[in-house]
Amino acid sequence: MSTSVWALLCAVRTLLGFVVPGRTPVTPVFSRRAGGSPDEATFATLHVAALAAPSLRAGLTRDSARKAIRHLHALLGAGAIAVTDVDGVLAWDGEADCQREHAPGHARAVLATGRPRVVTGHALACGLPGCAIRGAVVVPLTVDRRVVGALAAYDSAVGPALVRTVTEVARWVSCQLELAELDSSRRRAMEAETRALRAQISPHFIYNSLTTIASFVRTDPERARELLMDFADFTRYALRRERDFTTLADELHCVDRYLLLERARFGERLRFTVRVAPEVLSVPVPFLCLQPLVENAIKHGMATTGGCGEVRVLVSDAGSEAHVSVEDDGLGMDPERARLLLGDDSRGERGEGGIGLANVDVRLRHIYGEDYGLVVETAPGAGTKVRLRLPKISCRA
């Protein structure tokens, strides 16, 4: 059972007054205040927690705390609650506003030591007649064992039930913040992979393209001009930084520019065919997910056939998905070597320093799930075909 689920169940059991294994029974809190059967109380507690979770998954910010505070207040049932970070109060909910300005002071020791604290007596004296607040429980919020904030509950009395409830709810909130950190780390990793992908555009390809263009300057200036424009289009696309998703049409345009440049270099020795179903041109795809496959196909197809080869790109409409295959007519390879190709970019299978298949495979799995990685079909003497599936979904640009 995950820590998040366990913490939430502990909170539910505490609210209902059930015995958590290894802990001392406490007085019911939720059932005492809201009434109703245990089943109704369990449902209500889980429902409120589900409403708070999306905001907390954004991390501990002023905006997320303000969106979650009412749900957390309903979950705790205290007179007032506060969510703080190391700089002060992020959000407050409740009638005892007289304690709000003192909340950072109440949380200071908790933030420094990482230990829960019960506040009573003069530390809570507000001087207002009729103030019902007589105690507070302040519990740290942690991410990766670092104290990032505190959850404080203020009430007319502080007993074991309130301490237990605030403690378990704080643990659940911390789990949501941990998940938010994991989401953020995953996004940063994907952004780093895309930056690395751009940096891996083969310097040999750039050098060879410019050398090829230079060779046409005197013999065929018009062809040199066209190739230079193709090269400019390719590098502008490959090095852009606006977004990490594009359309299949743009990705295929990049592939077309790349093939034209390689065709100018190899001449009639390189043959290629591109067939595309028009229905899939608007499908959003990860940036630079096709060109690396074509680059590898040219490398393997031509390097193993005496400098001649054919590359075939087929993009078809498959209902809820677009199916893409990139195939060469080279000598193929052992399936175990193909498995290593997808498992480790560091083995040098990058087409003279280009982008490895593993980079594309990892990005596809991160974005769409484990079922959407590259599939390599190959055998000695049978050429190589790389297939991928692209769901027709809206991806964030």
Note down, in words, how this protein is organized.
By secondary structure, this protein is of the alpha+beta class. The protein folds into 2 domains: 3-187, Beta-Lactamase (2-Layer Sandwich); 202-391, Heat Shock Protein 90. It contains 12 helices and 12 strands. The protein has helices spanning 3-16, 30-34, 38-56, 62-76, 103-113, 160-199, 203-219, 221-238, 248-266, 291-303, 335-343, 357-368, and strands at 80-85, 88-94, 117-120, 135-143, 146-155, 245-247, 270-276, 284-286, 309-318, 321-328, 375-378, 384-391. The strands form 3 sheets. Strands 2-1-5-4-3 form a 5-stranded antiparallel beta sheet, with helices on both faces. The chain is elongated.
Please supply descriptive tags for the structure shown above.
single chain; Beta-Lactamase; Heat Shock Protein 90; 2 domains; 5-stranded antiparallel sheet; 5-stranded mixed sheet; GAF; kinase
- The arrangement of helices and strands along the chain is HHHHEEHEEEHHHEHEEHEEHHEE
Q: Can you give the mean pLDDT?
A: 79
Give unreliable regions as ranges: 1-7, 11-34, 345-355
- Large-scale geometry: elongated
Number of domains: 2
**Total DSSP helices:** 12
Beta strand %? 15-25%
The N- to C-terminal Cα distance equals: 35 Å
Number of strands: 12
Query: What is the annotated CATH architecture of the largest domain?
Result: 2-Layer Sandwich
- Coarse structural class: alpha+beta
CATH topology of the largest domain: Heat Shock Protein 90
- Helical fraction equals 40-55%
The CATH homologous superfamily name of the largest domain equals: Histidine kinase-like ATPase, C-terminal domain
Oligomeric state as shown: single chain
Radius of gyration: 30 Å
Spatial ordering of strands, largest sheet: 2-1-5-4-3
